[in-house]
Amino acid sequence: MRHTLFIILLGMFLCAKAQEHSVFLGIELGGDKDEFVDALEDKGFQFEEEDDECTTLSGLFDGVGARIEVQATPRSHTVHLVTVYFVEIEGNEVGLLMKTRQIRKQLRRKYAEWEYTHERNLEEWSSEFARISFGKKRLQGNSFKTLFVQWQDRRGWETLQREKQ
User: Fold this and answer.
1) Bridge-partner residues for 27, per DSSP?
2) CA–CA distances in Å: residue 135 to residues 7, 17, 138, 146, 165
3) Strand 54-61 to strand 64-72: parallel, antiparallel, or no bridges (unpaired)?
4) What are the domain boundaries of the chain?
5) Fewest CB atoms less than 10 Å from the CB: which of 61, 64, 69, 98?
6) Which helix (H) or strand (E) holds 2?
7) Ramachandran region, residue 129 (left: φ > 0; alpha: ψ -120 to 50; beta: rest)
8) pLDDT at position 123, please?
9) What are 57-98's pLDDT values in tens digits?
């Protein structure tokens, strides 16, 4: 019995160690920005605009109209951050409240062991490979706040810090 329990625990540990990057909609962060954006387009998201470090797409996310920003490092174009803005519910306080509760519940269920809010630096990350954040933000040019959720890859973030130096 102890041997079986040891094997199960070892397997769980190795699976956790094998995942070195954050995953967004089944796509691993930490890779090439163009490949990541292509994969999102294959999932039905529409390209909106792009600059050196950010590509913006739009489409339905969790059943709600959303804007997705894919952030990449300046030199290697490694994806380190993906942010989803639920633009369809801007200005709708009831919709915003309900979606916030729903997202919080989903995050708690999926990332139960993580403290996913207000992690400001690497030492505060509650996961070895990623962090998830969410909150409300006013987008440029809009008068209402909207809900956002971010997936940030730790290795991509570390690459970003190196490339900034």
Assistant:
1) 24
2) 39, 29, 10, 8, 29
3) antiparallel
4) 2-164
5) 98
6) helix 2-18
7) alpha
8) 55
9) 999 988 888 899 999 999 999 999 999 998 877 677 777 778
- Please state the rounded mean pLDDT for residues 103-122: 62
Amino acid identity for residue 149 in this structure: V
Q: What is the DSSP string of 42-66?
A: HTTPEEEEE-SSEEEEEEEETTEEE
Q: For 133-163, give the secondary structure using H, E and C.
A: EEEEEECCCCCCEEEEEEEEEHHHHHHHHHH
Residue type, 25: L
9-15's contacts with Cβ under 8 Å and 24+ in sequence apart are: none
d(CA 19, CA 102): 26
CA 23, CA 147: separation in Å to the nearest integer? 20
* 148 and 134 Cβ atoms separated by less than 8 Å: yes
Exposure class string for 41-64: b at 16+ Cβ within 10 A, else e: eeeebeeeeeeebebbbbeebeeb
